[in-house]
Amino acid sequence: MKTLPSIRQRVSRAALAWSLVWSVAVSMAVGLALQHELDEQFDDQLQATAQVLAVLLEPAHLQKAAAEGFAMPKMPTHVGAAEVRLAWQVVAAEQVILRSAEAPQAPVLPSQRSGFADTADWRVFGTALAAPGHMLYVAELRATRTEELAEIMLSTTLAALAVVLLAYVWMAARLRRELAPLQVLSDELAAHDPLDDTSRLGPAQRQELVPVHAAIDALGLRLRQRLRREQAFSAHAAHALRTPLAGIDAQLSVALREAPTALQPRLQRTREAADRLQRVVLALLALFRTDAPPQLEAVDLEELAQRLLIAGLTVTVDSPARLQADTDLLAAALLNLLDNAQRHGAHHVAISQPQPGCVRVHDDGPGIEPARRIELQQALQTQDYARLPGLGLVLADAVARAHGGRLIFAPVDHGFAVELQLTSDTTAAGLLRSSQ
After folding, report:
1. Does residue 394 surpass a pLDDT of 70?
2. By the 8 A CB rule, do 84 and 144 touch?
3. CA 365 → CA 73, 132, 157, 250, 336, distances in Å?
4. Which helix or strand (DSSP H or E) is residue 146 part of?
5. Phi/psi of residue 229, each to 5°?
6. Which of these, 88, 89, 94, 87, lies nearest to 133 by C-alpha position?
7. What is the DSSP string of 75-138?
8. Is the Cβ–Cβ distance between 308 and 315 less than 8 Å?
């Protein structure tokens, strides 16, 4: 299963993305909750500070401060939020009579008011003092709360991201470990031949994969049994037909010599039909032999072509050539290709060896359109034999594949040409030429 690495990558990326989304969502939720809690704590702090200051600021103290002209230290021109935490001031008759160093010189509220209030810069809690007409305001810069909340949010987010990264590393390691048995199974399947009795999958790496292994072995057994039944039936049928067909050909040969002249053309056509039926039977036998390893030997193409005689078709070998191939399989493939050429109107076929391990069959028939040639080539590449016109091309491709190659529809200016690439080294070159 070559897709396991991509599955692992997709799952890892998805886990990381969702983890990041989760961390952001958690940070936002925590931030909202903290904002509410911090506001309550800060407000409680303002109120508690006001209560303490109200006790400390007795009326006698306030009267003395007013009589002596109490003055506070000069305020800095700029006070940052980090420098200011709490400020307070005592207001009477809309005048600040007593304040902390951080408090503004003007009342924080335009009118006397008890309880909590907000201005553009301050969060204020006001409470009336014992002295009539005196108000105590304890205030906090709103920017201070914002900065503290931002620091808490940042710390929370970083902590969440750290947890997410640790979880991602853990999930990636766990995912690799969980997918490892599937990768082992994938490698075993790549080397497994379900049609080979001796080929077996190894023991399951996980208990959950035991039924999968059993199902694959059972499927292989069913495939072997079905294939053997089909091969046995086809082989017996082909052999059973071969002997009577040879007898029919012999009887027709005798009948041709003894029959009147008027009957001889009809007997000749009957003999040609019987001869073609013999070639079909030979093709079936060869087709079922392609599942076995080919018996390679030196083959002389010119000698082989002399054995492949078809009435009405001239076969020539362009130049003496020899190659390593299974003689019977190659003969069956060439015979069916020649039969196809004769049936499609060809009168001459040239057999050549354009490169080592390659046999070209080029006829002078009507040929096919380039689009049709590409379509047939695609059918060969995918082994969609139902789209091929006839048994001959199917057999030729099966013979080429049995030798480790492919059947190629070669582009030519006239007629029709195919190449049996009998070795894998020539396959790529043939495919390249066929696409030109």
Report:
1. yes
2. yes
3. 114, 123, 78, 31, 15
4. helix 142-191
5. -65, -45
6. 94
7. PPS---TTT-S-EEEEEETTEEEEE-TTS-SS-SSSS---EEEE-SSEEEEEEE-SSTTEEEEE
8. yes
Per-residue pLDDT tens digits for 163-220: 778 877 887 787 778 778 877 888 788 777 777 777 777 788 778 888 888 888 888 8
**Environment class of 149 (CB within 10 Å of its CB; exposed 0-12, middle 13-18, buried 19+):** middle
Amino acid at 142: R
Nearest Cα residue to 388 out of 313, 330, 336: 336
Query: Residue 117: beta bridge partners?
Result: 124
Structure token digits, residue 37: 């809690």
Q: How far apart are CA 179 and CA 203, in angstroms?
A: 16
Cα distance between residue 109 and residue 50, in whole Å: 15
Residues in the chain, overall count: 436
CA end-to-end distance (rounded Å), the chain: 33
DSSP string, 245-256: HHHHHHHHHHHH
pLDDT, tens digit, 9 for 90 and up, residues 230-242: 767 666 666 677 6
Closest CA to 351 of 303, 386, 393: 303
Distance CA 205, CA 48 (A): 67
Residue 271 and residue 380 in contact, taking contact as beta carbons nearer than 8 Å: no
Q: What's the rounded Cα separation, in Å, for the pair 286 and 190? A: 28
Q: What six digits make up the tokens of 209? A: 């994969």
Please give the backbone phi and psi of residue 80, each rounded to the nearest 5 degrees, phi first: -75, 165
For residue 431, give the nearest of 409, 414, 412, 416 by alpha carbon: 409
Give the span between the Cα atoms of 135 and 101, in whole angstroms: 18
CA distance 315 to 146: 96
Could you say which DSSP state residue 429 is in?
Answer: H
Distance CA 343, CA 275 (A): 13
Mean predicted lDDT score pLDDT of the chain: 78
What is the side-by-side order of every strand in the sheet holding 95-99? Answer: 95-99, 87-92, 134-141, 122-128, 115-118
For residue 188, give the H/E element and its range: helix 142-191
Residue 299 vs residues 326, 356, 359, 393, 423: alpha-carbon distances, Å = 8, 12, 11, 21, 15
Give residue 172's Cα distance to chain centre.
Answer: 18
Q: Sheet containing 406-410: give its strands across.
A: 314-317, 348-352, 358-363, 416-421, 406-410
